[in-house]
Structure formats: structure tokens, C-alpha cells
Amino acid sequence: MNTLLRIAIQKSGRLQEGSLELLKESGLSISNGKDQLKTQARNFPVEVLFLRDDDIPQYVEDQVADIGIVGENVFAEKKKDNRLIKRLDFSKCRLSMAVPRGENYTGVQWLQGKNIATSYPNIVKGFLAKHNVEAGIHEISGSVEIAPGIGLADAICDIVSTGSTLLSNGLQEVEIVMQSEAVIIASPTLSPEKQKILDKLLFRIEAVKKAKNSKYILLNCPNESIEKITQVIPGMKSPTIIPLTRAGWSSLHSVVDENDFWERIDQLREFGAEGILVVPIEKMIV
Ligand code: ATP
Ligand code: MG
């Protein structure tokens, strides 16, 4: 029988869409029926298991799945012997400490002797130990943010993305405990055949990720600016330069990093660039 790499992803929730999109953009053809628990990619040796995110680290540890996509927060909480293989740039959030808005929070020492409600007892334990603070931890699995309001705890440690849930529960964010994003985790050991499939998949994921962070840029410029512009947008090896029929002008094509894109555009205009076009890149293999 041909070897399949088993990938566990969240069945439904905030990780599911990004996980499926990533696999699809990597060229895997996957169907996801609503009640399906398992499916095989039609064109790649991969089987996808749909599970609750909290269960994924255990399944990966037990090698029921070979790899999994979870929030880094869940990986850190249920570490086991799994390895963090890759950060994926989606489902970004943070795990934060929050206290009632009226409290005069002065620093981590404020938590000394207090009760903290959280779904992340191990991460909170680590955070408190790092700051030499002793506090009670009250583990609850959901609706953590109502705990202070009903007298269950003095503070909470929970996932925050915009802070609107905290606000509507009368809480203020006081400490960021960790930043999180979706990550790929893998079993401590994989057979050479499975490792080979994983390497192939990671190569594709990297190409998709690089492409997302880059833009293809085309512009016209006076020939005397080519050198200066090349320094601003050097591209992968060098820009492509094509002479225009208009004397003394060229068309220059390159790749630019999404993050410092606007800054670069300003410089290019200073050097006389005109007709600047910026287009998305689908895949990028360097
Ligand atoms: P499950 O039913 O699978 O147990 P869940 O309710 O525990 O799901 P979700 O709320 O879907 O989990 O969140 C899954 C992960 O998505 C979290 O562990 C976290 O990493 C990330 N996440 C949570 N909230 C947000 C948010 N507001 N923005 C971005 N990412 C988030
Ligand atoms: Mg969960």
C-alpha cells in the first residue's frame, strides 16, 4: 500500500478555513463535506483528519496523525513530544492577562495571591513562575471572560484578537503572555517515506507563503535611473529590463516585499518611475 501522510486539522472553528486554504493553495485537491471526519487528497499522498483543535496534539503525539495544524497557544499548552515545524501566518492572536477595568493594575506583582481563570493552566503556570508570582489557577474550558464578573476569579488569561470581548465584559488587557499564530506540528518521529511527503508539502507551503509576502512590480523609467531603481527593488537575482520604443526609456520588472512596499514606491517615484503596476504573485520558488 502506498504511504499516506496524515494531517489533522480543525473540524470547524477559527483555524479551519485557513488550514484548508493552505492545503488547497499547495495544490492538494481536497473535498470537505460537512460531516466528514476523514478525506484523502485526490492528487497528493495525504489524508486529512478533521478534529477538535484541543485533541490534535494528542493525536499527533500518538501518531494517529503524523502532523497537525493548531494554534501555537494550543501547542504550547499541550506540548508533549511534538515538534513545531512551521509558523503559518494566519489565525494570529495573543494570549493575554486581563483584569476588571476598575482595578489599579500596577504590574505582574498585582497577581500575587490572586485567582486566575484560564483554559491555559500550563502556560499561565510558566508565566507566573518566570515572574516569581504565586497565584491560584482556576481552569475552565470556555467563556473565561465572565469569570471575574461572577466572582469566580480576580483575573483571566485568554485569547485576544481585537479586545472587543474583553471590553464588553468590563475587562482591561494588562499583560501579553504570548503571541500566537497557526503552526504545523509533527510527531517526534516520522518514517522516511512520510518525511519525504512532508518535505514536499513544506516546499509547496513555503512557495505559497513567499508569494503572499511579495508583489510583482512593473514600471517605466528613464535609462539613467535604472541603476538607482535596481538598488531599491533588486528582485530575486536582478530586475528584468526591456527597452521601450520611446528613446531613453525602459520597462523594468521586479519583485518587491509586501512589507516595505509603500516606502519603496515613494523612492521609485523620486527616481522618475512612471506607470507603476503592482500585481499579486501566486507561487514563488526561489
Ligand atoms: P474546537 O471546537 O476545535 O475545540 P475552539 O472553540 O477551541 O475550537 P477556536 O475558537 O476555533 O477554538 O480557535 C482555534 C484557534 O484559533 C485558537 O486556539 C487560536 O489559536 C486561534 N484564535 C482564537 N481566537 C482567535 C481570533 N479572535 N483571531 C484569530 N485567531 C484566533
Ligand atoms: Mg478547542
TrEMBL record:
Main location: cytoplasm
Alphabetical list of InterPro entries matching this protein: ATP-PRT_HisG_long (IPR020621), ATP_PRibTrfase_cat (IPR013820), ATP_PRibTrfase_CS (IPR018198), ATP_PRibTrfase_HisG (IPR001348), HisG_C (IPR013115), N-reg_PII-like_a/b (IPR011322), N-reg_PII/ATP_PRibTrfase_C (IPR015867)
Reactions accelerated catalytically: 1-(5-phospho-beta-D-ribosyl)-ATP + diphosphate = 5-phospho-alpha-D-ribose 1-diphosphate + ATP
Broad class of enzyme this protein falls into: transferase
Domain Histidine biosynthesis HisG C-terminal: 211-283
EC number: 2.4.2.17
Subcellular location(s) of the protein: Cytoplasm
Regulation: Feedback inhibited by histidine.
BP-aspect Gene Ontology terms: L-histidine biosynthetic process
Pfam families: HisG, HisG_C
Pathway(s) of this molecule: Amino-acid biosynthesis; L-histidine biosynthesis; L-histidine from 5-phospho-alpha-D-ribose 1-diphosphate: step 1/9
GO CC list: cytoplasm
Required cofactor names: Mg(2+)
Domain called ATP phosphoribosyltransferase catalytic: residue spans: 52-206
Entry keyword set: Amino-acid biosynthesis, ATP-binding, Cytoplasm, Glycosyltransferase, Histidine biosynthesis, Magnesium, Metal-binding, Nucleotide-binding, Transferase
SUPFAM superfamilies per the UniProt record, alphabetical: GlnB-like, Periplasmic binding protein-like II
HAMAP family (UniProt xref): HisG_Long
Role noted for this protein: Catalyzes the condensation of ATP and 5-phosphoribose 1-diphosphate to form N'-(5'-phosphoribosyl)-ATP (PR-ATP). Has a crucial role in the pathway because the rate of histidine biosynthesis seems to be controlled primarily by regulation of HisG enzymatic activity.
PANTHER family: ATP PHOSPHORIBOSYLTRANSFERASE, ATP PHOSPHORIBOSYLTRANSFERASE ATP-PRTASE
Record-stated family: Belongs to the ATP phosphoribosyltransferase family. Long subfamily.
Name listed for the protein in its UniProt record: ATP phosphoribosyltransferase
Originating species: Dawidia soli
Gene (UniProt): hisG
